[in-house]
Amino acid sequence: MRKTLFLITGLIVCHLSTAQVERALEPESKVQTSHSVMIKGQTVPYTATAGTQPVWDEDGKPMASLFYTYYERSDISDKESRPLVISFNGGPGSASIWMHLAYTGPKLLKIDDEGYPIQPYGVKDNPHSILDVADIVYVDPVNTGYSRILNKEVDRSTFFGINSDIRYLADWVNTFVTRHNRWASPKYLIGESYGTTRVAGLVSQLQNSHWMYFNGVILVSPTDMGIERGGPVKMANYLPYFTATAWYHKQLPQALQSKDLDDILPEAEEFAINELLPAMVKGGYLSDTERDAIAEKMSYYSGISKQAILDHNLMVPTRFFWKELLRDEGLTVGRLDSRYRGIDRQNAGTAYDFDPALTSWNHAFAPAFNIYAKNVLGFETDLTYNLFGPVHPWDRSNETTGYDLGTAMRQNPYLHVMIQSGYFDGGTDYFNAKYSLRHIDPTGRMSDRTSFKGYRSGHMMYLRAEDLETSNQDIRDFIEKSKVMPDQPAKY
């Protein structure tokens, strides 16, 4: 690897005294390095820029600074037709590290083929990165990663809430696109988990307040995004996820267990919509005979006992399911990826002690990014890289992001939406994601611009080697499908 380093401004200002060491973030800085990576058998040269860009207040003074990493393919000069992907993770309070070092970027953290951490920690080339077809910028919102508030007098509500988060990030994206001369480029937003709430709102805010139009939005393991559901609807929607998880752990009756996952999930979905949901809606007016029959069938599709289901009046919480499914084996299953198993302090109880998936991921990602930032990107700092930063209290009021995304699609005939979900994700389950997609477009008239992709993994489906390749290819195909021919008018 040939590496060239350009230090534009110092990132960290250190004031040393006998009393303390003050660590402060410069509003603007960047370090640029040159690299190459082999993607799909092709050598792709690129530049990596790690830096900070301000968030300004109404008087034009920096009130925060956001850390970003920007990857540009360096053997392509035509930026007008070169797609730009703007990437966010979620939380709220999560840095962009997850998709950056495990999904779409040119480097991957070292994990095994099923996503479990291995030592020594570090990174390797990503042969499936989308950098061959698009430039990518990974953005860390305020208090995540190396991003920090600069003006301590600014009210925290300026940054920490559904709608304030969208407003300041829209301004930041507008500045970034302008500085890097990418207004003509086909543009895409990708967000994971709470990041889907973020990008669903951002595409609307950027379109309506900054007049910046996008070709696509990719929702990875989406949240509810403010789309109304609750009670029986949400609870019935969990059933297909229960089926997928029970199938993985071989807890289903032989008649189901012997089938492939792709064959049994449509069955579970039909049962959830056509039988379980109406039964839940009836509540106490459901006859004993009906209740018993539904519980029996729910047990058949979930792998837990009929009695446990009856004890919950058919509405089984996910937290109980994670504790109950493998209780006989003294094990729990993960929330964010139910393939992962854990051991609690005691076998009794209605919820697990910890999520075995998340704890496994944390000790793979944190060391890898700190090594990568310093040794590969050449980014020097004494700040802690916050995988999860202090962003609370978070104002969750007035969330309409899913509906706003639908409105943005209707306003912009160029705009496409794709959802990517893992079947074993219990935090943002795949069938509720399908429900969201249906209600982003309740008329069904934009179905040619919406798509759903499912994978045999969890919340971060890309941690599984097979799904890493498939999911990145799905993004490539999505970008290709949403390209607009020259002189094609935006009209219905």
UniProtKB/TrEMBL annotation:
Signal peptide (residue range): 1-19
SUPFAM superfamilies assigned to the protein according to its UniProt record, in alphabetical order: alpha/beta-Hydrolases
Keywords for this protein: Carboxypeptidase, Glycoprotein, Hydrolase, Protease, Signal
GO molecular function: carboxypeptidase activity
InterPro entries with a match to the protein in the record: AB_hydrolase_fold (IPR029058), Peptidase_S10 (IPR001563)
UniProt-recorded name of the protein: Carboxypeptidase
Source species taxonomy: Bacteria, Pseudomonadati, Bacteroidota, Cytophagia, Cytophagales
